[in-house]
Each structure stands twice: as structure tokens, then as C-alpha cells.
Design a protein that fits this description.
The complex is a heterodimer. By secondary structure, chain A is an alpha+beta fold. Chain A has helices at residues 2-26, 29-32, 61-68, 118-129, 166-169, 184-189, 235-243, 255-263, 292-300, 304-312, 341-350, 371-383, 396-404, 421-429, 436-439, 444-455, 459-475, and strands at residues 41-46, 75-77, 83-85, 88-93, 99-104, 144-151, 154-159, 197-203, 207-212, 226-231, 249-252, 267-273, 277-282, 317-318, 357-365, 387-395, 410-415, 479-484, 486-492, 495-496, 513-514. Chain A starts with a helix and ends with a strand. In chain A, 51% of the residues are buried. By secondary structure, chain B is mainly alpha-helical. The chains are: A alpha+beta, B mainly alpha. Chain B: It is found in: Cell membrane.
Chain lengths: 515, 321
């Protein structure tokens, strides 16, 4: 009997524990909903904290998204990625293309109240071009010789030659215009931009809150009083946070997470085709891959749809090199648009490698959700064509190191695309491009085509030129373009007015309202 | 060497030695990792840097100094309370740690309490009649605790509570104990349950074994023969003596918890020390990782020291030796 007393005590303890768990689970449910919505504030779920608040060095997704709402650029993209006026109201290229004159918007102020004028533009562009600043967009200004500011509302860029891609290049947040009085050190802690929002509160690794900039120059002021980017490191935890109403908007990369989010019924998920593209990068400087026939054999032995279906649940579109909506490549106009093993064998024969080849391939783990699955599917498909992909799965830091050093035969990569094809590929596939070592391929014809593309401002003519660029890249199997995925923008029912973009940008937070 | 025969002094010397060892190992391992702060920050864009740009960045982050100089300047600075600086969050690592450590400490304490509440009674119950149904039940609980991965339990709990009851305090901004005690406890409940359940298993097993062992001792039989009431016998004689291994196990587990329940903190977005280290590693923020790990090591050593002291309180034999 006494023993029974003991067990009763244990049972009681276990029971009371279960009871506390139950009671506190039902209690706070009511109070948890309104917290995120009160006072017209929008909570955006993000998986990581911005790694920098200095716009010229920001490449991380969250950092770019946050900074885009704080800083202004000379030009901007609209929802279809056309270049539209930003801080510059208009721009005009000279007849010979050696000058670009920008007329600046009047009455714009920085968050600290100081006035924006041509002095700020000149100092910003000069600093971006200075190597010491280590600004990541420096190469986009390669055609700019000097920047003049003849009066407060005019800026003249002296160019080495025509550069039709320049207006688009000025639209990224890496080209943000900073006040000439500011320093990097100051801005790291207190951003001071001309964007629709200003920095409110920041709690390291937890949240960053932006407040509406009432002095914003745009015709429409932001609808919400504040936007909080709340760090919830795990994408499926963001889904739970949305289900319980704590978070109202999030952008997902993982198709599986997007599907779960949609499954509940309370969350709407919008799919937007991305500019980003998945590719099997081939390094034409190495080993067997020097032979164009080997590269073509690889191209013919891959069924891209199968890679998309098995690795990304079919969520995406098979793509050619150019993903920008206005310049899109036609994936059917390439050698072996469909898998053709006989043709692959023929190419291998031509290369004198009928017995097969081995290609050392690097794959990053953890950088994006589908990498390893893609690599395994490619390996399986290519094995049937006697092409052995030797996979080396690397932690993302190690992958970047090897990639940057071009130390690979092939790489399974997810590359960022840009709205202008010159911006996307000029740096990779021109002989002088600063990523040419990584791309592993260039040719005099391509150099000529890229130069022509830059010198032409007529849109239709440019489209024709970049069609040729795309064809050249695929005819030589510089890389194997596989597919473009989607970005998934998830919103709860009370969110209206948000427009997702193919660049994954959250610039339309300014038109978003929470009901 | 006679100094070292003095027990407390020897412990201090040991502690310093251990901490120095940890410092060296962390420093070396971090640098052995591929990638540095620059590539971690810029990703593949780092390929576009010109040599002059890279040099400017290396200078900015202090990566241009020789490794040995970096090591000793870091260690020297730590003695003066300067734990380094996070380029990412623009805050001193000391400040970050002072925010993160109490959060993890609280989580660890709650988890241990829950684990003890589950583990000790169930372990005693299981031992009370070996090979009975309750013993089997105890085995099942401890097996479940050991084998269900924390991330699975965490995501399951989270989605059940969020989807079915709309209860998800962890989706809100984190509240510290001083800011909003009620919300804080709600936010700690699920992570503490997940961690506590995992730790309850070894505590349950240790308790069961210890109770069985103590009960077979002569003094228990003597006490019973002398007519000590059964309840008093169980609590004072059996459980009291079984406490030593339970305390050891608990102290050990507590140390591990302080080391950061990384996965659980990540899933429930609890801004504790584990997440701080994880973020630091991802961003290759050397100062953050090095200093935080050293603080964790110090905490671990201190917990062990405390456990030692506790023995002396609960077990007179240790005091005598």
C-alpha cells in the first residue's frame, strides 16, 4: 500500500503537468492574434536577420529587401521589371551615346531631413566606383568615365561608349543614393535614405521595424504605419506563425513549405516565376570539358523537365539562358530540346570519348532547398549516357570558396538573374567580365554581341541581339540551363495591395495594407 | 607543485587550462572552416571583387593580421571585457551575450525542472516493481524520449498548437522574463517541454537504477526491520541516497543545455545562446563564435563545479573524503 502512495504522487505530478500544458494552451490563444496587427502594422516573416544595413554591400536576400524600402535609387523597376523613374525623373542619352544626362526629382529629402540633390548623386556614384569602398555594383558602372553635377537637379555621366543597360543597372539597391555627408560607419547603425520607410527599432537577430516615411516623395504614401521584419529561422515555423495570425506576409523558397502553407486554407500563396535560374555550370577550361562535343553530349543527355519534376516537385519552368520577361529565351530553340541519348553518344564519339567521361561536380548543401536533389537526378540521367558526375556535396561556405576560385569541372548552381540580360551575363561571358573565370567560357563572337547589345537602345533590336547571345551559349553548351523556380509569396486574408515581383523584391510593401 | 595539492586552487588552475584549450581549439577550427567573413557576407558576388577591393575589406575586418596576433589580441581583449564586435548587428558581443545567455539559462532551468518532474517520479515508479507494467511504461517513455528527435517533436507540437488551437506565442516577438513574464512563460513552454522530454529519459533511467541499487543495500533492510515507516524509508533513505547519480546526470544535462539547444531555439525562434553561435558560424563572424563558445565553456565548467559542491551537501561521504 505505501508503495501505492508513492505512485499516486507521481501520477499526480504527471497529471498536473498535463493540465498546466492544456490550460495555458487555450488561454493565450485569444490574446495572441491582435498583437501583430494593431495600428496598421504589417509583420513579415523572414528566416534571417539582415547581414548588413549598408546598401552598397548588401547581397543577402533579407538585407536587400529591407534596404530597398529604406533607400532610393535613380531608376526603379515597375512590377513587370520595366525601368521607370526613381530619384531621376528622366534621362537622355547623347547622340553618340557617350553621355547620359539625368534630371533629378525636386523636393526629395533624406530621412534625417537633409535635402537630396546632384551633389549626393555625384558623391555616391564616385564612391561606388572607388575600389576602396568595395561596393558590389562597381562593375555595373564600368562604362562611366566620370560624373558631373552642372546644377543641383542635373547629373551628367560621361561614358566610354554607349551603354543601354546602364539605366537598368542604376535601379538596384546596391546603387542606392546616399547623402554626401554620410559615412559607411554611420549608416551601418542608422540608415538614412530617401525610401518610403525609415528605420524604427532593431533587435539583433530578432526583428527590424521600419516606420512609414511621411515625407516620401512618391505620389502614394505607404499604407501601413510600420513594417516589422520578424526573424523566424525555420520556414515551417513561419507557416505556423501565419496560421496563428502573428505574421501576415512571407516569401518562401521551398516548394514543399509553400504547399503546406496553402494546405491550411487560411493562407494565400502567389507563385511568381523568378529571374533566378538553376543551371549545371560547365567549366570549359578544364579536362574533357574543353571539348565542345563533350559539353554538347551532356546537354543532350539531360531531360530538364525530369530534373524539375524530381528535384523541385515540378514547381517551375524549363528555361533557356535569358529569364527576364522582356528578353526571354525560347527553350525549344536549342540543340536537343528533348533528351536524345543517341545524339549524346554521337557527340561523345566525335570527342573520341565513346568509353565515357568523368566530371567532378560541386554541389552546395543548405544554400537552397533543391540543390542536392538536382545533382542526384543529373547524375542518374547522365550515367545512362556514360557520363559520370562525381558529386562533391559541400557546405555552402566551402562551395562559394571553390566556386569563386573556379575550382571545379562542373557546378550545380542557382544563379541570380537580372532584368537586363547584359546585367545578367555581361560579367560572366565577356572575356573581360569580372566573373569570366567562374563562367569558364568566352569567345570573340560573344564579346562582339555583348558590345552591340550595350550600344543599342532600341528594345526590339536588343531583343534580337540577346537571342543570338542565348543561341551561342547553348550551341556551345557553355552551361546547361535547367529551370527557373517560383517565389512563393504567402499572405494572410487581411493583407491587400501587395504585388510580388519576379526578382523576389518586396518593394510593393509600400502599397500593402493590412485590414 | 604543492600549491596544486590545494584542492580549490587546483580546480581554478584546471578551469583556466580548460578554457585556454577551448579558446585555441575554437580559434583554429573556425579558421579551418572554408570561407571567411567576406565570402560569407557576399556569397558568390565575392567573385566579382577586385584584389584591391578584397584587400580593403580584409583590412576592415582585421583579417590581414597574422593569425597568432589575431588570437592573442582577441584573448587579451577578452580579459578587459572587450569580447569583440559583431559587424553584422553593430553590437558588442558582450552585449549580445548578456541578452542571449539569460534566455538560454531560463530555458535550461525550465527544461530541467520539467525533466525532473517527469523523470524522477516515473523512474521511482518503475523501480518500485521491476518487470511490471509500470516498469514497462517507464521504459517506453524513456525510449521515446531518447529516440524522438527534438526537431520532429518541436515541429509537430508547433504545427498542432498553431493550426488546431491558434496558439503560437513563438510567432510573436520574443518577450523576456522581465518585459512580459506571462508571454515569456508561454513562449518557453513548448521549447522547454521538447527539451525536458528529451532529458527526462536519461534521468528516468538513472533514477530507476539508483533506486534499485540503494534498495538492495543492507541499511534499507535494517531500517525496515527497525520499523521505519515505508514512506519515510522510501523518501529519506532510498531516494535521498539515490540522489547522487541523479544530481550528476542533471548537472551534465544542464551543462549541455547551456551549450545551446540549437535546434529547438531555431525552430521556436528563441533568441538564446545556441542561435547566436549558429548565426555566427553561418556568417563566419569569428568574434561572435569565439567569445560565445568561451562563455559557454565557462558556464559548463561552473555548472560542474556547482554539481561537485552539491554532492558534498547531499552525500556526507564526499565531504569526509
Amino acid at each position: 500500500m505505501p508503495r501505492g502512495a508513492f505512485s499516486a504522487a507521481g501520477l499526480a505530478a504527471a497529471l498536473s503537468l498535463a493540465l498546466t500544458a492544456c490550460s495555458s494552451s487555450s488561454g493565450p490563444a485569444a490574446s495572441s492574434t491582435p498583437a501583430g496587427q494593431a495600428g496598421g502594422s504589417l509583420v513579415v516573416g523572414v528566416t534571417s536577420d539582415p547581414d548588413t544595413l549598408f546598401p552598397w554591400k548588401a547581397t543577402q536576400f533579407t538585407a536587400v529587401n529591407v534596404l530597398q524600402n529604406l533607400y532610393g535609387t535613380l531608376t526603379e523597376f515597375d512590377k513587370d521589371l520595366n525601368v521607370v523613374p526613381g530619384l531621376a525623373e528622366s534621362w537622355q542619352a547623347a547622340e553618340d551615346g557617350k553621355q547620359l544626362t539625368l534630371k533629378l526629382r525636386q523636393g526629395v529629402t533624406f530621412a534625417d531631413g537633409s535635402t537630396f540633390d546632384s551633389k549626393d548623386v555625384k558623391s555616391s556614384l564616385d564612391k561606388i566606383m572607388d575600389e576602396k569602398t568595395a561596393a558590389v555594383a562597381r562593375a555595373s558602372l564600368a562604362s562611366v568615365k566620370s560624373v558631373e553635377a552642372p546644377d543641383a537637379s542635373t547629373v551628367v555621366l560621361e561614358l566610354t561608349g554607349p551603354d543601354a543597360a546602364l539605366p537598368a543597372n542604376l535601379a538596384t539597391v546596391n546603387m542606392a543614393i546616399l547623402s554626401s555627408d554620410d559615412t559607411e560607419e554611420k549608416l551601418n547603425a542608422t540608415p538614412n535614405g530617401t525610401g518610403p520607410f525609415t528605420l524604427g527599432k532593431r533587435v539583433a537577430s530578432q526583428s527590424i521595424t521600419l516606420n512609414r516615411n511621411d515625407k516620401y516623395w512618391g505620389a502614394e504614401k505607404p499604407k501601413v504605419g510600420s513594417v516589422e521584419f520578424r526573424v523566424i529561422p525555420d520556414e515551417s515555423s513561419i507557416v505556423s506563425a501565419m496560421q496563428s495570425g502573428n505574421v501576415q506576409l512571407a516569401v518562401f523558397n521551398d516548394p514543399l513549405v509553400a504547399q503546406t502553407a496553402e494546405g491550411g486554407g487560411t493562407i494565400t500563396v502567389a507563385k511568381t516565376p523568378q529571374l533566378n535560374y538553376h543551371a549545371l555550370q560547365l567549366n570549359a577550361q578544364r579536362g574533357d570539358l574543353k571539348d565542345v562535343n563533350v559539353r554538347l553530349a551532356i546537354q543532350c543527355a539531360i531531360d530538364r523537365k525530369q530534373v524539375l519534376d524530381t528535384a523541385a516537385l515540378g514547381e517551375g519552368e524549363v528555361t533557356g539562358p535569358i529569364t527576364a520577361p522582356a528578353f526571354k529565351s525560347d527553350p525549344n530553340k536549342r540543340p536537343c530540346p528533348n533528351r536524345d541519348l543517341a545524339k549524346a553518344a554521337e557527340y561523345l564519339g566525335k570527342a573520341g570519348k565513346s568509353g565515357g567521361v568523368t566530371v567532378k561536380t560541386i554541389v552546395s548543401q543548405g544554400e537552397y532547398a533543391t540543390s542536392v536533389n538536382e545533382a542526384q537526378n543529373l547524375k542518374a540521367q547522365l550515367a545512362e549516357a556514360k557520363i559520370n558526375l562525381e558529386l562533391e556535396v559541400l557546405e555552402s561556405g566551402a562551395f562559394v570558396d571553390r566556386w569563386v576560385a573556379a575550382d571545379f569541372d562542373a557546378a550545380v548552381a542557382l544563379n541570380g538573374g537580372r532584368p537586363d540580360p547584359d546585367g545578367s551575363y555581361g560579367r560572366y561571358f565577356t572575356s573581360e567580365g569580372n566573373l569570366n573565370k567562374v563562367a569558364g567560357y568566352s569567345s570573340p563572337e560573344l564579346d562582339k554581341l555583348f558590345a552591340q547589345g550595350k550600344a543599342t537602345s532600341d528594345q526590339a533590336a536588343r531583343k534580337a541581339i540577346y537571342d543570338q547571345v542565348g543561341a551561342h551559349l547553348e550551341d556551345n553548351a557553355a552551361w546547361i540551363w535547367l529551370f527557373s523556380g517560383y517565389t512563393y509569396t504567402a499572405t494572410t486574408a487581411n493583407v491587400t495591395g501587395f504585388t510580388p515581383m519576379a526578382s523576389g523584391s518586396l518593394q510593393y510593401l509600400r502599397t500593402t495594407a493590412v485590414g | 607543485m604543492r600549491l596544486l595539492r590545494n584542492r580549490p586552487l587546483r580546480r581554478v588552475a584546471e578551469t583556466i587550462g580548460i578554457l585556454f584549450g577551448v579558446a585555441v581549439v575554437v580559434f583554429v577550427m573556425l579558421r579551418a572552416l572554408p570561407g571567411d567573413q567576406i565570402t560569407a557576407g557576399l556569397g558568390t558576388e565575392a567573385a566579382a571583387l577586385t584584389p584591391a577591393q578584397r584587400q580593403a575589406l580584409e583590412q576592415y575586418y582585421g583579417l590581414d593580421q597574422p593569425l597568432v596576433a589575431q588570437f592573442f589580441s582577441w584573448l587579451g581583449n577578452m580579459f578587459t571585457g572587450n569580447f569583440g564586435y559583431s559587424a553584422r548587428s553593430q553590437q558588442s558581443v558582450l552585449e549580445l551575450t548578456l541578452h542571449a545567455l539569460p534566455v538560454t539559462f531560463e530555458l535550461a532551468v525550465l527544461s530541467i525542472v520539467l525533466a525532473l518532474l517527469i523523470g524522477v517520479p516515473l523512474g521511482t515508479l518503475a523501480a518500485s516493481r521491476t518487470n511490471s507494467a509500470r516498469d514497462a511504461a517507464g521504459q517506453v517513455v524513456s525510449l521515446a524520449g531518447l529516440s524522438i528527435p527534438a526537431f520532429l517533436l518541436a515541429t509537430t507540437l508547433l504545427s498542432i498548437f498553431a493550426a488546431s488551437f491558434g496558439f503560437n506565442p513563438n510567432g510573436q516577438g520574443f518577450a523576456t522574463l522581465t518585459e512580459d513574464p506571462l508571454l515569456n512563460l508561454q513562449q518557453m513552454l513548448l521549447p522547454a517541454l521538447v527539451l525536458g522530454f528529451g532529458i527526462a529519459a536519461p534521468i528516468l533511467r538513472t533514477t530507476r537504477t539508483a533506486v534499485l541499487e540503494v534498495r538492495s543495500n543492507d541499511f534499507v533492510r535494517t531500517a525496515r526491520a527497525k520499523g521505519v515507516p515505508e514512506r519515510r524509508l522510501q523518501v529519506r533513505h532510498v531516494l535521498g541516497n539515490a540522489l547522487v547519480p541523479i544530481v550528476t546526470m542533471t548537472g551534465l544535462q544542464f551543462g549541455y543545455l547551456l551549450g545551446g539547444a540549437v535546434v529547438v531555439e531555431q525552430i521556436f525562434s528563441v533568441p538564446g545562446i545556441g542561435r547566436q553561435v549558429l548565426l555566427g558560424i553561418q556568417q563566419k563572424e569569428y568574434a561572435v563564435v569565439q567569445s560565445t563558445v568561451l562563455v559557454i565553456a565557462l558556464a559548463f565548467v561552473l555548472v560542474n563545479l556547482l554539481t561537485d559542491l552539491l554532492y558534498r551537501v547531499i552525500d556526507p561521504r564526499v565531504r569526509a573524503s
